[in-house]
C-alpha cells in the first residue's frame, strides 16, 4: 500500500546504485536493474524503469502513464491510450460482443466471460507487448505472446503459433480428442462437421 502511495505523491525513494535513477516502487527499481545486465534494451521508461529495444515501444508504453488517449472510437467517442485497445472496443458495438471491459476495451459475447476476464486485471500487468500493447503479469507469458507476431502459422483452437506449417499440422493432432474438425488442406478449423464438408468444396474449385 505504501509503495502504491508513492506513485501518487511522485516521491521516488528507491535509487539505482549503478546510474542513480530513482523510482517510486521497489519492483520498478528491480525491473530497471535488469537493463544493466541485458545491454540490448536501450530505451528506458523514467517512470517505472521498464526498458524497450525500440524507441517506438517506449513511446507507446509512456501513454500508459499519462491520461492521453489519442485513439478515439468514431462510434461513441470513447478514447484509448493504445490503438489495440480501440480495436478491441470497436467489436463491442456489434451484437456479437455486447459486454465490454471498462479497463482495456475488450469485448465479450457473454457477461460471465467478461467477469472472468476482469480477474486478469486484478494483478498488475508489468510486461507489455511493444507491438500491440497487450499486457501480461509474467515475462514468460509475454515471450510466448511475442511468438504470435513472428510465427505466421497460428492454431485457431488455442492460438499457439509456429514458424512452419508442418509444425502447426503436427500440433493439431493434439486437439483430435476434442470436438473440432480440421481441414487437412489448409488447417482451417470447424466446430461442426457439415461446415468442414462445405468448406472442402472450395478446395475442389481451386
From TrEMBL:
Top-level lineage group:
Eukaryota
CC annotations in GO: nucleus
* Location of this chain's protein in the cell: Nucleus
What's one GO MF term for it? zinc ion binding
Gene Ontology biological process terms from the UniProt entry? regulation of transcription by RNA polymerase II
Chief localization: nucleus
Q: Name one Pfam family in it.
A: zf-C2H2
**Does the record carry Signal as a key word?**
no
Q: Which residues form a coiled coil?
A: none
SUPFAM superfamilies (alphabetical): beta-beta-alpha zinc fingers
| Gene3D superfamilies noted in UniProt | Classic Zinc Finger
For the FYVE-type domain, which residue ranges apply?
Answer: 123-191
State the UniProt keywords alphabetically.
DNA-binding, Metal-binding, Nucleus, Repeat, Transcription, Transcription regulation, Zinc, Zinc-finger
Q: Where is the C2H2-type domain?
A: 14-37, 43-70, 71-98, 99-126, 127-154, 153-180, 181-206
Its family? Belongs to the krueppel C2H2-type zinc-finger protein family.
What name is this protein filed under? Answer: Uncharacterized protein
